Amino acid sequence: MRLKKFILLFLLAIGCGTYTPLDNRYAKYDHIYYFDTQLRNLEEYGFKKSERYQYGIFDHKSASLKLISADGNWAFKKILKLKKTNTDILEVEGYDKFFIYFRDPRGIVFTENIENAKSVKSLIDTGGALEELTSIDACKEHSAKVKKEQEEFTTSPGQE
Description:
Elements lengths: L1 H14 L16 E3 L18 E7 L4 E6 L6 E9 L5 E3 L6 E5 L3 E5 L11 E7 L6 H19 L6
Antiparallel strand pairs: 1-2, 1-8, 2-3, 3-4, 4-5, 5-6, 6-7, 7-8
């Protein structure tokens, strides 16, 4: 009996913190994604109201989406662990009704309903993989460019 308990505890300890890589068919989605809304629509899915993420790095080998904070410190603030389902939709572990799927050619979609995931009613948020986003430094340059464009857009005529 003691040996069974020991083996069970040992197997549980080994299993904690491990992940199952996703199929190689997901390798084509290994990109840095840009979220223009900073994923503000995720509050009701377990994210704090103050959490803002501008970029995310998807990696099929670690079955994760690493979210980079929009606060300017460029740290991975949250890592979403992903689990394959019986469909092409990935479950975000640790959250209720929270799934991800990829829309070709370079889109990522957050959805709340696995049965009707591709319906507009199930849509939570989206992002896109931009070709110029190849590194954190490229994200910094992109962020500065977007910020400048936003400032120019909101500047009234004659105030340039």
